Amino acid sequence: MTRTLLFEVGTEELPPSELPAVLDALSENATHELGEARLPFETVRVYSTPRRLAVQVAGLADRQTARRITVTGPPKKAAFDAAGRPTRAADGFARSQGVTVDQLVTITTERGEYLAVDRVDPGEEARAVLPELLARLVWALPFQKQMRWGSGGVRFSRPIRWVVALLDGEVLPLTLAGVRAGRATFGHRFLANATIELASADDYVARLEAVRVIPDVGRRRELVARVVDAAVAESGHRAVVDADTLEVVAHLVEWPEAIVGTFAKTYLDLPRQVIETPIRRHQKCFVVESANGELAPFFVAVSNMPGADPTEIRRGNERVIRARLADADFYFRDDLDLTPDDRARRLGGIVFQERLGTLAEKTDRVVALVELLTGAWPDAQRRLVRRAAALAKSDLASGMVREFPELEGVIGEEYALRAGEPPVVARAIREHYLPRAADGPLPESLEGAVLSIADKIDTIVGCLGVGLIPTGSQDPYGLRRQAQGVVQIALAFGRSLPLSLGVTVDRALESLRPKLTEPFEVTRERVLEFFRGRLAAILVGRGRRPDVVEAVLASGYDRPLDTLERVDAVSALMAREDWEPLVVTFKRTINILPPGFAGPVDPGRFVHEAERHLHEAVVRESGPVRAALEAGRYADALGRIATLRPVVDAFFDAVLVMDKDPRVRDSRLALLKALAELLLPVADLRKILATAPPERRD
Predict the structure, then answer these.
(1) pTM as predicted
(2) What is the number of alpha carbons within 13 Å of residue 36 lying toward its C-beta?
(3) pLDDT band at 191, cuts 50/70/90?
(4) Reduced to 3 states, what is the DSSP secondary structure of residue 167?
(5) I need a labelling partner for 331 at 20 to 30 A (CA). Which of 1, 30, 436, 600 fits?
(6) Is 326 found in the same domain as 263?
């Protein structure tokens, strides 16, 4: 028999910006926890509103699946005496497991033979397992900021006010932060804030919608977009329902209603992003366009009070937006009195980071990195990127960015264009902040890409160099995101931007050497390992096997694009029908080599024809393989190496590598080392699993 589980945690208003990630984690964790608890189910659905989180599990088994377990006891040699009679160790183990000695079995382990008992664990009922499981789900939610309330020591994003835990119609015995679970939830905070008694877990969605609460975020998101569009459609305008604002608004309301407001037409003279920022980012409203795509002097607010008089809500939003646009207008016009060069000269008075100096110092370091990265470019193009680097942070000295930090880079581009800077310079100033999020858009111009990489590597090397290392979920300087951005840009621009992590990090470290808190080499290793982790995560995220990625990274990862191509070459090799014997042969080749072995092949010490044949094959293929490796044709190189398997197998069949004659042994090892040196620049195949690792459950 299957059941339906409902678990709801009611709180004070939750932070909308954190809810998308929290809901993903809730779904993933619930799926994982139920699997670990051996409780099969059909579907897991998560719900949320501004003041609740919920998970509903359909088709849940009413008890855990049975499992066979083996309990290991004493070593067999200690369990029986010389005459084969059970010792006290055997008797005691059997008694502790509720069986007789005759029912014990012998198992072979890495440590030898042991007595054991096989038994079946029938599992517990779901009602007994779920309370502890549900509590773990709550405390594992990844809220960035948490708080305490009352006299207890519980930490959560917001105070917990009610808990619902129903298995069909049965209330589960569960208490969270002093709140005992029941069957009572609540309707719309203002329109129907009465207690709703749920008879069954299946009633959840229908009962809430009857009291003006839409718990399904996806449905609420669609409804917000629909009512916002409809609010301005009759006037011939179009609401710009951008994804970011839509996501935030969907988490701010339980039952949406759109309200149209206005602002003075004179503000339309401001750059579009200057107008949009206070409307979208600060007031969480949607901007409106005319039929020709230009901004119109309207906005759409979304209220959580359907049916209420919208007049005061409209006036309140208009008042705030009017004030913010007036501020923007003042700072924009005031900033235009200075040129980007004027503002750049003020960067010496602005601290970038206490231990890393001012923005002027950072600018100098970024310029140096840009010169390194563009060393092979034409002089005219290099001058443009250097100019962009010199002005990249100039807008941080503007009043506009002090008032609207979200406009950094964007307003820098605008000011550069108005000052007569070349468009490529202005564009690079804006693009060097990209990507602003892990999955955000990348720079589109090569100049913007180079400047972005230089800026991010300087920040990463500087912060790690003075001990500002991300820990767990704490990454105040966004170093993981910035490292991921560097790798993504390098992969996206390919051979037009051949980034060497080692060379670039070394140059950044040289500029920062007086500020480092640890030795140069220690910091260098930490920085490169940091990039290694982000590169691995990106490649696995793109569908490459983790063990293949690890095998390739073990052979080097200085150039991200080169690393990706080697991963794909190894993956292609693994698709061959003879992959299994291939990998066995070449793993054996590498494994037999002693650490640090060095020595020449001595044909005069060959004893068997198989040695001569292998030597000739390796010499014959070395040139073409090395040429293919040098040209980045890794699939070709691996294909040629694969043709050597028959002679390698014949070699292992014919000779004992570790011969008692040290000169013969060393010659044979040198022969295998010559073969390994053709393969190891691509990947260390020893790290590839014999079979594919299990897929992650998402």
Answers:
(1) 0.81
(2) 13
(3) confident
(4) strand
(5) 436
(6) yes
Which of 89, 4, 13 has its CA nearest to residue 42?
Answer: 4
CB 178 within 8 A of CB 135: no
Q: CA–CA separation, 625 vs 544, rounded Å?
A: 24
Both 115 and 143 in one domain: the answer is: no
Residue 297 lies in a domain: yes
> Would you give the DSSP letter of residue 282?
I
Read off the tokens for 290: 């005319």
User: Residue 656: helix, strand or coil by DSSP?
Assistant: coil
Rounded to whole angstroms, the Cα distance separating 263 from 285 reads 13
Across 487-510, b (16+ Cβ under 10 Å) vs e yields bbbbbebeeebebbbeebbbbbbe
Do 484 and 631 fall within a single domain? no
Q: What is the C-alpha separation between 63 and 38, in angstroms, rounded?
A: 8
In a domain, 695, yes or no: no
- Tracing tokens 């044979």 back to the chain, one arrives at 668
Rounded to whole angstroms, how far apart are CA atoms 247 and 224? 10
Question: Using only C-alpha atoms, what is the Rg of the chain?
Answer: 33
The whole-angstrom separation of Cα 183 and Cα 196 is 8
Closest CA to 676 of 687, 668, 684: 684
Question: How is residue 467 written in tokens?
Answer: 């001990």
Vertex 108: Cα angle to 104 and 112 (nearest 5)? 110
Going 10 to 12 to 16 to 17, the CA torsion angle's sign is negative
CA-closest candidate to residue 252, choices 54, 55, 51: 51
Beta bridge partners of residue 117, listed in sequence order: 71
Question: Does one domain contain both 145 and 245?
Answer: no
**Full residue range of the structural domain in which residue 564 is found:** 560-687
- Give the lowest-confidence range in 105-114, 274-283, 540-549, 644-653: 105-114
Shared domain for 55 and 105, answered yes or no, is no
Q: Total structural domains in the chain? A: 5
Give dist(CA 573, CA 688) in Å, integer: 12
Both 86 and 137 in one domain: the answer is no
Question: For position 169, which CATH number holds?
Answer: 3.30.70
Residue 19 lies in a domain: yes
401 lies in some domain: no
Long-range contacts of 611-619 (CB under 8 A, 24+ apart): 611/651, 611/654, 611/655, 611/667, 611/668, 611/671, 613/647, 613/650, 613/651, 614/644, 614/647, 614/648, 614/650, 614/651, 614/671, 614/675, 615/671, 617/644, 617/647, 618/644, 618/671, 618/674, 618/675, 618/678
Rounded CA-CA distance 383/371 in Å is 9
Among the listed residues 256, 238, 234, the one whose alpha carbon sits nearest the alpha carbon of residue 246: 256
Cα separation, 494 vs 633, whole angstroms: 15
Domain co-membership, 180 together with 247: no
145-190: pLDDT as tens digits? 889 887 777 889 999 999 999 999 999 999 999 999 999 999 998 8
Q: What are phi and psi of 567, to 5 degrees?
A: -60, -45
Give yes or no for a contact between 178 and 152, defined as CB atoms under 8 angstroms apart. Answer: yes
Q: Are 584 and 592 in contact (CB under 8 A)?
A: no
